[in-house]
Amino acid sequence: MTKFIAFTSDTNTITIPEKFDYPHNYTPSTLSKIATKELQEYLTNQTDFFHDFGIKNTENQNALGKMFGVLVVKNNKSQLGYLAAFSGKIAESTQHKHFVPPVYDVLSKNGVFLKMEEKRNLINAKISYSENSTQYLNIKKDYIQGKLLNENLIIKEKSKIKQRRKLRKELSQQDNQQNINEEFYIREYEVYLQSKTHSLEKEYNNYQQKINQLKEHRKELSATGQQEIFNQYKFLNAKKESENLITIFKDSKQNIPAGSGDCCAPKLLQYAFLNNLTPICMAEFWWGKSLATSIRKHKNYYSACTGKCKPILNHMLKGLIVNENPLVAQLQAKKDIEIIFEDDYLIVINKPAELLSVAGKIIEDSVEHRIQRKNANYLVVHRLDMSTSGILLIAKNIDIYKTLQAQFTNRTIKKRYVAVLNGIISQKSSEINLPLRVNLNDRPKQLVCNTHGKPAQTKWEIINVKNGKTKVYFYPITGRTHQLRVHAAHNLGLNTPIIGDDLYGTKANRLHLHAERIEFRHPISRKIVVFICPPTF
């Protein structure tokens, strides 16, 4: 059954894009938005499957939002339509009638994955039986108790020897031979105690060795099975060239991330190429309850991830005319740097939005690059996100740099940011404490992570509420990457993204975040200095 969906809306007057969207940074076209609207109407009314997306009840712990995607295509009759996809699986299935199939169905009855799971389950059953057998548990208990008893006996004997030596020292009766004899006694006593539990230890180790062998076999089976699965994921491109996950990721420095190939974009393009449909444009959006870690808002558009999808899409888009990454053009545009203050030791500047603080891998133009062209000794003391404007400190030599850096490290420097949030905040002020780490599958985005995240604290207060927007002051206590942006957007933070935040919210003319005020001790005069640079928004 074809998955080509004809538009129900009138698209005859809509301009067809000349180039395909750069999938990792784009604004959905009009056609993509129409297809998205139609798919969202289907999701609202469909009865083909049941999956609790958490739209009506966000408190349901089992509810799970999902990423969906549309790909506008043209068939061999030059008719426009679209394809629909979801990431991973829905309602415990990878296939549903309204959506394109997966590139490789891991849940196929005769597939590698289920066969591997069957073998793994047999090994797990053997491990469970061995670890829970009465004989093994009794031997383990007796061995551990015997070993613990021996350790306690040795500790007691060593304590007695220590007391005797202390007494001899107090009586000035030091005897080196006696000390040597006691050392020999302890060693012989340890050997004696070990001999009493030797047979028990041997029996326990034999059991443990068999269990460890089963676990090692399970590990090898998983690794072999995973490689077989990676081989089954074969991706076409517009030139009809095919590559699997192993060859696609062979030059990548990272391991193949779990779930690679199961996102919307690869599924959509694969189906289009297999069925001779010409890709026109695409869009991906989140549907349902937000995640606990990364920021996903209901109905918001999101670009394809960089960790799992970028290597795959680099291959799949060969043969299509694709727009340049708009970020490259943004960063190449020249932006003037305003000097707020300068003396013989430091410079205070107003960094414009969309200018890097330090040079990147692709773009050299940055505050650092420009200042070091004037003087190679100049150093950027701290950083602002590329999209954030505002006050930045420049040290004119390494000693000034170290002195200012120490103030940042000791958190004696006070900073204040101004931001405009895309919504109304009811609370007047508070503090946010959400630990952050990088999203390894979608750099440079950050995740809230209580296990591996670094502490991140932000104080905030409302300035005013106007036209459904909230202007706030942010006072960052720590300085994590994207800290203010994540703390604003995350549902455990303010749950209201900053206007123009294309990573955690929606695009606008710019990110409405500005480093407005800084207070620190001048490294030479030792006087407290304050600099203020109001935002333009």
Describe the structure.
With 537 residues, this protein is of the alpha+beta class. It folds into three domains: 5-104 and 234-323, no CATH class; 129-224; 330-532, Pseudouridine synthase, CATH 3.30.2350. Helix content is 35%, strand content 20%. The protein contains twelve helices and 18 strands. It has helices at residues 30-45, 112-132, 134-170, 176-196, 198-232, 245-248, 264-274, 310-316, 326-332, 367-374, 398-409, 483-489; strands spanning 5-6, 66-74, 80-86, 234-236, 242-244, 278-287, 338-342, 346-351, 379-380, 389-395, 414-421, 429-433, 436-438, 446-448, 457-466, 469-476, 513-521, 528-532. The protein is flat. It starts with a strand and ends in a 5-residue tail after the last strand. The model has no long low-confidence stretch (mean pLDDT 92).
The CATH topology of the largest domain = Pseudouridine synthase
- Rg is 32 Å
Mean pLDDT: 92
Helix/strand-derived class? alpha+beta
Shape: flat
Total strand segments: 18
How many helices? The count is 12
Main sheet makeup: 10 strands, mixed
Strand content: 15-25%
CATH class assignment of the largest domain: Alpha Beta
The CATH superfamily name of the largest domain is: Pseudouridine synthase
The assigned CATH architecture of the largest domain is 2-Layer Sandwich
How helix-rich are the residues, as a percent range? 25-40%
Distance between the termini: 52 Å
Q: Give the total of domains.
A: 3
Low-pLDDT stretches? none
* Element pattern in H and E: EHEEHHHHEEHHEHHEEHEEHEEEEEEHEE
